[in-house]
Amino acid sequence: MAQPVIEVTGLTKRFGATTAVDDLSFAVPRGEILGLLGPNGAGKTTTLQLLLGLTTPTAGQARVFGLDVQRRRYDVLQRVNFSSAYISLPTNLTGWENLHVFARLYGLRRPRPRVLALAETFGIADLLDRVTGALSSGQLTRLNLCKAFLNDPEVLFLDEPTASLDPDIADVVRETLRAQQRQRGVTIVYTSHNMREVERLCDRVLFLSRGREVASGTPRDVMERARQQTLEDVFIRIARDGRLTDSREAEG
Ligand SMILES: Nc1ncnc2c1ncn2[C@@H]1O[C@H](COP(=O)(O)OP(=O)(O)OP(=O)(O)O)[C@@H](O)[C@H]1O
Ligand SMILES: [Mg+2]
Q1: pTM beyond cutoff 0.90
Q2: What domains can be seen in the chain, in order of their start residue?
Q3: Whose CA is nearest to atom 4 of ligand 1?
Q4: Ligand nearest 40 Cα, by number?
């Protein structure tokens, strides 16, 4: 197999007594859409932050493009991007100013057409002159998504990118992610609590519980192993039992 784009080995992050990510290992090949799933507090956001080098691992390593993200953060960040509903953009700048600053950071020579095209895609072209402090949460999410595509990233880390979006624009986002995967082989790691969306979008899912991997595979695989009809039922089982299969079934 070609070298995976993302490689995580023994990744661990502790915050005091809390182990947010616990000895996690996985690899993502180029062009895959991987869904990082699990209950609130399972360690999804922390894993994404470790992959971006935004926080230092307690143990283990994350590599992107074969580069250690801790040591080669600058080289990695040029070629990746992310969106998160929880990282806020400066509220006193307009949407246009925010995106312009990022476009410059990514070295775009002619940011304007690029920014406009993305704003059209995500339906906020008419809002670019507004300060971001005056945007609704869904509108802010759209702005964050525009930012995430500015540098034509090879890898996208998306933390609940559709959480506050209306169904119409959520569909646009899914279409856009699929198109990016198809046309440019973009690799995507994303989190979501919308299991129907995950079933439709992800090539593979990785379920976390208390920072540990409890299941991974194609959505179909995981549903079959858990003997559940839907990914939502798989999720509920993992959330309640902390494992994929009922312990009584496994023993019987
Ligand atoms: N900066 C921090 N300091 C202390 N504990 C933290 C910190 N960040 C995360 N944690 C803890 O680490 C665990 C994992 O949190 P994380 O945000 O990664 O979960 P998550 O899977 O993204 O959950 P959610 O579905 O709610 O977004 C939680 O128990 C959380 O309280
Ligand atoms: Mg989270």
Answers
A1: yes
A2: 6-251 (3.40.50.300)
A3: 15
A4: 1
